[in-house]
Every structure is written in structure tokens, then in C-alpha cells.
Write a structure and sequence with these properties.
The complex is a heterodimer of chains A (about 425) and B (about 375). Chain A has about 425 residues and is of the alpha/beta class. Chain A has 13 helices and 14 strands. Chain A folds into two domains: about 45-165 and about 310-375, Rossmann fold; about 170-300 and about 385-430, Response regulator (Rossmann fold), CATH 3.40.50.2300. Chain A has a seven-stranded mixed beta sheet with strand order 7-6-8-9-10-13-14, sandwiched between helices. A five-stranded parallel beta sheet of chain A has the order 2-1-3-4-5, with helices on both faces. Chain A has a two-stranded antiparallel ribbon with strand order 11-12. Chain A starts with a helix and ends with a helix. A two-stranded antiparallel sheet of chain B has the order 1-4. Chain B has one domain. Helices cover about 70% and strands about 0% of the residues of chain B. In chain B, α2 (about 30-55) packs across α12. Chain B has helices spanning about 10-25, 30-55, 65-85, 90-95, 110-135, 140-160, 160-165, 185-210, 215-225, 225-230, 235-260, 270-285, 290-310, 310-330, 335-345, 365-370, and strands at about 170, 175, 180, 265. In chain B, β2 and β3 (about 180) form a beta hairpin. The longest helix of chain B has 27 residues, at about 185-210. The chains are: A alpha/beta (about 425), B mainly alpha (about 375). At the A-B interface, α1, α4, α5, α7 and α13 of A face α1, α2, α4, α6 and β3 of B.
Chain lengths: ~425, ~375
């Protein structure tokens, strides 16, 4: 008897709790799919505090995890740019106060920290990210909160967002120039080797389309996950295929394993040179094997002879925590901070909508170490020169090919009729 | 006092429910509500681990597998919902624009199928796996390593099937949750409340199981599997039930993680994610009712707040805490509470038959050993 009465108490309690919960949950319901709701939160934009004499900016870089080796440098150079701007009087007379967050090489962490920076710290803009995966994690969050995100690394293109500014190269500024260079060298066969994630996959899809146009045959395509270093079997296929060139879209430390396997297999830059899009001045000496004679496609090299480059290199060498060499992603991060300053000063405001309106008017430029860059107000990318460098014995790059002046950014490859229009349309539509 | 004691856990669950469902929404900002929702998800998985490991003695090091089943079921549904009818998810267009939607994605367009998948997929997988393992009497470290390996395998499989699953980048950018606009604050609160309510339900389930005959058998199996067998029960079946229940809880946790966090990647279900789930349970106290859930929530909180102010130091703090707890409080921080209240409350020390005392290693069994 006792047991049954207990059971009844329990059932009553459970039912009560369930009813209360359901009521609570239903009271929380908001907009449904069919409702006409403004999806951007209007409150978020006004949370930027401009009353004091400082302005908060967020830096979001992986300080731990696999990408820390690259992203710490970006974080450092952002600090340097902010210090320079502060010493020069700040932005609109306000000193930059930065909040550094760790993305921890974990994409959900990037999303969480973006949300934190925008809604808790109320930063006016966020700078950082490296992998395309991290950018793709940040994108919905900055869009939803109507924030600003400055992304400093070359990427696979086919993206545009009103809330993101891309200061690295899109495909037609790095991948396509590399292909033009290969064509000019008379390359007939090409092997594609990449890390298994969004950038190499998409880049290679574009390379295959353009190669068909240029009459270059793709003789193989291999992928290895980002965190794996063993390239032995894949490189054996390269040795067998004997391509004129290897197009390398491997990212991070996996490159070390690739380079080791490449030389172990008896491949050399004389017979089967590599052209990379992610080995720069920082990475070249860290390959565990000398890589002299191989190539890389970038928009900036330390060896570039421009008026502003010498100043940039000297400033970086003198900066605490500096690695001593400069590279393309660093320079793009440096640009992003100054570009933001130029945009805010043009807008006369830190509000996101005002900054975007200033960008849309066009004509925002910055005399960058790579040369003068101009912001495209519509797609939020910048014009860049394309260069191909050949690695020399000092792990610096001798420039062997350059584009005719700057290349205008074309993330959706609209100027290239070999890119299928239906794919472009599908991507643009689903991007909203 | 004596009559109240068995109801203390229920009162505890009630207090927790009140805090999570009524107090938290009224005092916390949306940012922290969202974070708390994420901790609730980890706590749900932890409650299941508490049942399987703390009470059943199975060190389930691969709960990421079931977390992943739930998370990816939900993520596929939300991705398709965001893409709209008849259109492909954006990442599929990127890699291979002309290929159709993979066949296994198609049923996830349905709301009902998705919900059933979240509940039944882990049942099916855990049943087959558990049956094979427990019938062949795989246990201890072998069981732990095997489950861990499965979590690694699933993460690698997802990473390497980029066109089918989104690969390392994962699935993200969800706009709708079963018709509700996810960016709306009211809906975010609703999703949080669902997760918090599910945590309460899971705690009730484990509490009820602990009181039942099954709960006694489970603990008996943990402490003396052979004796349970001699008594005429099949330990494999008892363990299987606990393993399946834990798997379902992990799957529910994964499914709620997706709309709350807004992204799921193989990293969240792999080896280190699975170990982090275990770490929370061990810290909190694996055999207690609240230990696993509170431990998991504490780790989640540590990750977002300490990880922010001291990125490289946080993981060392966690490691140190883990070592200290394992050395000095093998049954977790919650056993500390038991020890303190035990000193204060029960000077006579007369444990009643109804007291669930998992940290006791059944002294009566040792007496039989002659």
C-alpha cells in the first residue's frame, strides 16, 4: 500500500513538473518561419560604446591547438597595428582597447567567442580567423548580431557577406594567377595535393575547371586530413604519375609530412616542382627539409620592393614577440586593421551600418606593404597584385612572375565564363 | 528525517529544475542562457555516463559516437530546413555542384523521422554493439579502448566524407529549428528550456532506475558480476540496458547541442571530446545522481570563462584538478559533500537499507569469502 501511494505522489509530481515545463517552454516561443521578422537583432548594433575615449575591438585567433603556430603571428601583428594606430592618435580620436580571445583551433569555439565579443564585450569589430572552417563558423554569428569581422587569409572565394571584410586573396587573385604562371611555363600535366577540408576541395574544383580551359591535364588528386602527417602513399602516386608540376593546397603542419615524403620518394624541384598557396616565409624554414627551388603564389612577399614594405618589415622586426620574417597573411592582417580605421574615419562613426555605407561609396584605399590596395565596396574584398615567388637558399622568395598591376577581387568568378553560371547562381541564392 | 531521506534526490532535482527553468531565464543574459544550454547538453550526456560508468562500471570512453549520431541527425535536418525544399546544402554545391543529395540525407527532411532517428539510432547502434561486447564479456580497459576507438573512427569517417557530411568544417548556419527562426531571442530561450527540461527528465529517469530493482542489479553487476550470474541473472542484459540508456541520453544531448551552439564538427564527437565528457563525470562524482551533471556543467563553465582569460592555462588547471580528484576523492567532488554531511548529520552512522551507497564496496560479499 505504501509503495503504491508513493508511486502516486511520484506520478503527480512528474505530471506537475511536466505541465509546468511545457508551459514555460511554450511561453518562450518566438517567431516562426512564416512570420515576417527582421532576422538581425536590432539591439546588438547599438551596444558598441562610443562615449569614452577608447573603442573596443576584438581579436579572435587560435592561441592554442594545431593552428596556434600560424594564428599567434596574426594576433601579434594585429597588436602591432593597433599599437601603431594608438601611438598615432587612435581611430576618430579614440584609443583602441583590444579584447583577445582564443579560438582554440575549434570551430564551435570560434562561433561562441564571436558571440561573446559582440554581445558581452560589445566590440565594434572583430579581427582574426585563419582556416575557412573558422570563418564559416563565425559567419552566421556576425550576420545574426550585425557585427563586423575582418578576415586576413587567402581563401577559396565563392562567398560574400555584408558583415565580413576579406583582406586576403580570393581565388582569382591567388589560385588563378598561379595557373596562369603554370601555363606560361608550358606545364601540360598537374597533380593536386591538398588537405581534406573546405579550402583545398573548393580550390581544386576551381583549378580543374580552369585547367581544362588552359589545356592542362590533371593527372591525379589526393587529400589527407588536416591533422594527419603521413603522405607516403599519396606521394607514391605523384612519383608514378610524373606530373610537370604539383599544386599544393595542404595547410599547416601536414606540409612537413608532405615535403618529407616528396624528397624521400626521390622527387626534386628540378623534375617535379611544387607550387604552394600556403607555404610562406614563416613556413618555408619549418619544413624539416630545405625547399629551395619550389614555388609559392601570394600577393605579398617579404622580398617585395615597395616604399611601405621596408617600413613594415623594420617595424615588425622591432616588435616584441616578432618572428623576424613577414608573410602574406600577416600583411593582410595588418591591412585589415588600417582598412577598418580608414572606413571608420570615412564614415565618421563606429556603427556597423555606417561603416558598411562608407564602404559601399567606394574609394577606400590603403598604402599597404604590397602596394596600394582598394576596397571593393560591393563584395568587401580588396584589389591585390598577384606574384609567384621561387624559394631561395635563405628561405626567402625570388619573384619570378607578377600580374599586370592589381587584380580586382571577383569572389564569385563572374568575369570567367568557364565557371558554370548555374553553380554560381545556386551559391549566390543559397547565400541569400 | 528517516522518511524524508529517500526523497532528498527528488527535492534536489526539483531545486535544480527551478533554478534552470525559472531562475536562470530571469537573471541571465541571452549570452549566458545560450552557454548554460550548452552545459546542459554536456550534462545530459554526463548523466548517461554516470549511469553506465558510475553505476554500471562500464567506462564508456566513446560517448561522442552517440552524441554525434544525435547531433548529426539534428544538424542534417536543420541544414535541409535552412536550404529549403528541393535545394542542396551550400557545401555540397561547392564540392560537386551536379551530384544529387546523398540518399541517407533525404529522410532527414522529415521532422518526425529526425526525432525518431535521434531516439532510435543510438538504441540500434548501442544494442548491436553492446550485445556483441557484453555477451563476449569484454570489459574493463578493453571495453574503454574499444568505445574510444569507435569515437575516433566516426570522427575520421566524417572528416573524410566532406561532400556527404561537411567534413572537418562541420555543419552550421542553421536558420530554422522545426519552423522556428533560430536568431529570435524568444526561440533561443525556448531551445534552452527544452534542453534544461530534458536534463531534468534524464535525472528523473536515472533516479527512478537507481531506486528500482534494475538499479540494484546494475550496482551488483558492477561490484560482482560473477555473483550476479550465479544468482541467475544475465549480467550482459543488465549492462546492455544501462549502455543503451546512456547512448540515448548522449544522442539527445548531441541533438540539442546543435541548435544551441549552431555548429557541429567531427572535433566535438572525437576522442578528446569524449574524454572531456568523462572528465566532467569523474570530477563531479560518477556514482552520484547529481555529480556527473554538475561536473559536466562546471567543466563547460570553466572552458568558457577561464579558457577566455587564460587560454593555455585552463587545460592545465583541468588536468591538475582531475589528478587531485582521482588521487584524493576517487568518487568525485560530490563524495566530499556526502562525507561532510555524513559527519554532521549521522553521528550514529546507521545506514538504512534504502540508502543508495554506491561507494560502499558491498562488505557483506567479502564476508562470504572463506
Amino acid at each position: 500500500m505504501l509503495i503504491t501511494s508513493r508511486g502516486r505522489v511520484k506520478t503527480l509530481l512528474a505530471t506537475g513538473a511536466l505541465a509546468a515545463t511545457t508551459a514555460l517552454i511554450l511561453s518562450g516561443c518566438g517567431a516562426r518561419a512564416g512570420d515576417t521578422v527582421e532576422t538581425t537583432a536590432p539591439a546588438a548594433a547599438s551596444c558598441i560604446d562610443t562615449t569614452g575615449d577608447t573603442i573596443k575591438l576584438g581579436f579572435l585567433n587560435s592561441l592554442t591547438g594545431g593552428m596556434a603556430i600560424s594564428e599567434k603571428t596574426v594576433s601579434n601583428v594585429l597588436h602591432m597595428a593597433a599599437d601603431e594606430i594608438n601611438a598615432d592618435g587612435g581611430i576618430l580620436g579614440k584609443q583602441i582597447e583590444y579584447v583577445q580571445e582564443d579560438g582554440a583551433t575549434d570551430w564551435p569555439t570560434f562561433a561562441e567567442k564571436t558571440e561573446k565579443l559582440l554581445t558581452q564585450d560589445c566590440v565594434a569589430a572583430i579581427f582574426g580567423g585563419w582556416t575557412s572552417s573558422s570563418r564559416k563558423a563565425v559567419k552566421p554569428v556576425v550576420e545574426e548580431n550585425n557585427g563586423l569581422f575582418f578576415y586576413p587569409v587567402q581563401y577559396e572565394g565563392l562567398e560574400a557577406s555584408p558583415n565580413i571584410y576579406y583582406t586576403g586573396a580570393t581565388t582569382n587573385q591567388q589560385i588563378l594567377p598561379a595557373m596562369d604562371f603554370l601555363a606560361s611555363e608550358g606545364v601540360k600535366t598537374l597533380f593536386l595535393a591538398g588537405s581534406d577540408y573546405v579550402f583545398p576541395r573548393t580550390a581544386n574544383a576551381i583549378i580543374k575547371l580552369y585547367a581544362a580551359e588552359l589545356g592542362i591535364e590533371i593527372v591525379g588528386e589526393e587529400y589527407v586530413p588536416l591533422d594527419k602527417d603521413d603522405w607516403t602513399t599519396q606521394v607514391a602516386k605523384i612519383a608514378e604519375a610524373k606530373p610537370d608540376f604539383v599544386f599544393n593546397t595542404i595547410n599547416g603542419s601536414s606540409n612537413v609530412g608532405f615535403i618529407k615524403a616528396y624528397y624521400d620518394a626521390g622527387l626534386t624541384p628540378e623534375t617535379t616542382p611544387i607550387i604552394s598557396v600556403s607555404i610562406a616565409e614563416e613556413e618555408a624554414p619549418a619544413m624539416g627539409h630545405e625547399v629551395t627551388g619550389n614555388y609559392a603564389s601570394w600577393n605579398y612577399f617579404q622580398s617585395l620592393d615597395t616604399p611601405d614594405n621596408a617600413t613594415f618589415i623594420d617595424a615588425w622586426k622591432a616588435y616584441p614577440g616578432s618572428s623576424g620574417v613577414t608573410s602574406d597573411p600577416m600583411e593582410a592582417a595588418y591591412i585589415s586593421m588600417y582598412l577598418y580605421k580608414a572606413l571608420v574615419e570615412k564614415a565618421g562613426s563606429f556603427e556597423v551600418d555606417d561603416v558598411n555605407a562608407a564602404a559601399a561609396e567606394g574609394g577606400v584605399t590603403f598604402d599597404a606593404p604590397e602596394g596600394t590596395v582598394t576596397l571593393d565596396g560591393e563584395n568587401h574584398h580588396i584589389s591585390k597584385p598577384g606574384h609567384i615567388g621561387k624559394i631561395n637558399a635563405e628561405n626567402q622568395f625570388d619573384i619570378v612572375w607578377s600580374s599586370d598591376g592589381v587584380i580586382e577581387p571577383d569572389p564569385y568568378l563572374e568575369e570567367y565564363d568557364w565557371f558554370p553560371a548555374d553553380v554560381r547562381d545556386a551559391l549566390v541564392t543559397s547565400a541569400g | 528525517m528517516k522518511n524524508l531521506k529517500p526523497w532528498l534526490p527528488l527535492i534536489g532535482i526539483g531545486v535544480l529544475a527551478l533554478v534552470l527553468l525559472a531562475v536562470a531565464p530571469s537573471v541571465l543574459s541571452m549570452h549566458w542562457i545560450n552557454n548554460l544550454g550548452k552545459y546542459c547538453c554536456w550534462a545530459i550526456a554526463a548523466v548517461g555516463i554516470g549511469l553506465a560508468w558510475g553505476r554500471g562500471g562500464m567506462l564508456v570512453m566513446g560517448q561522442g559516437v552517440f552524441f554525434g549520431l544525435g547531433a548529426y541527425s539534428m544538424a542534417m535536418h536543420l541544414t535541409l530546413e535552412s536550404a529549403g525544399p528541393d535545394s542542396l546544402p551550400i557545401f555540397m554545391i561547392l564540392y560537386d555542384p551536379l551530384a544529387p543529395l546523398p540518399a541517407f540525407w533525404e529522410p532527414f527532411r522529415s521532422d518526425l523521422f529526425t526525432l525518431l532517428a535521434i531516439l532510435l539510432l543510438p538504441v540500434i547502434v548501442a544494442s548491436i554493439l553492446g550485445y556483441a561486447l557484453f555477451k563476449s564479456r569484454v570489459k574493463g580497459a578493453y571495453f574503454a579502448i574499444l568505445t574510444q576507438a569507435l569515437a575516433v573512427a566516426l570522427a575520421v569517417l566524417i572528416s573524410s566524407t566532406i561532400r556527404e557530411t561537411g567534413g572537418d568544417t562541420g555543419l552550421s548556419d542553421f536558420k530554422y529549428f522545426f519552423g522556428f527562426v533560430l536568431s529570435d531571442d524568444g526561440n533561443k530561450l525556448m531551445v534552452y528550456l527544452i534542453a534544461a527540461a530534458l536534463l531534468v527528465v534524464c535525472l528523473l529517469v536515472v533516479w527512478q532506475l537507481g531506486r528500482s530493482r534494475f538499479g540494484e542489479l546494475l550496482i551488483a553487476t558492477r561490484d560482482a558480476e560473477e555473483r550476479v550470474r550465479f544468482l541467475g541473472y544475465d549480467p550482459a542484459n543488465i549492462k546492455l540496458v544501462a549502455f543503451v540508456v546512456a547512448a540515448v541520453m548522449a544522442s539527445i544531448a548531441g541533438a540539442m547541442f546543435v541548435p544551441i551552439v549552431g555548429i557541429i564538427t567531427p572535433q566535438e564527437i572525437g576522442a578528446s571530446a569524449s574524454i572531456l565528457m568523462i572528465a566532467g563525470v569523474a570530477l563531479g562524482g560518477r556514482a552520484s545522481l547529481f555529480g556527473p551533471a554538475l561536473g559536466a556543467m562546471a567543466i563547460g563553465w570553466g572552458q568558457s570563462s577561464l579558457g577566455s582569460s587564460w587560454p593555455s592555462g585552463w587545460i592545465y588547471i583541468l588536468g591538475l584538478l582531475f589528478i587531485l580528484v582521482t588521487l584524493f576523492l576517487p568518487m568525485g567532488l560530490s563524495s566530499l559533500v556526502g562525507k561532510v554531511t555524513g559527519l554532521v548529520w549521522r553521528p550514529r552512522a546507521t545506514p538504512t537499507a534504502t540508502t543508495p551507497a554506491p561507494e560502499f564496496t558491498a562488505p557483506e560479499f567479502t564476508e562470504v569469502k572463506k
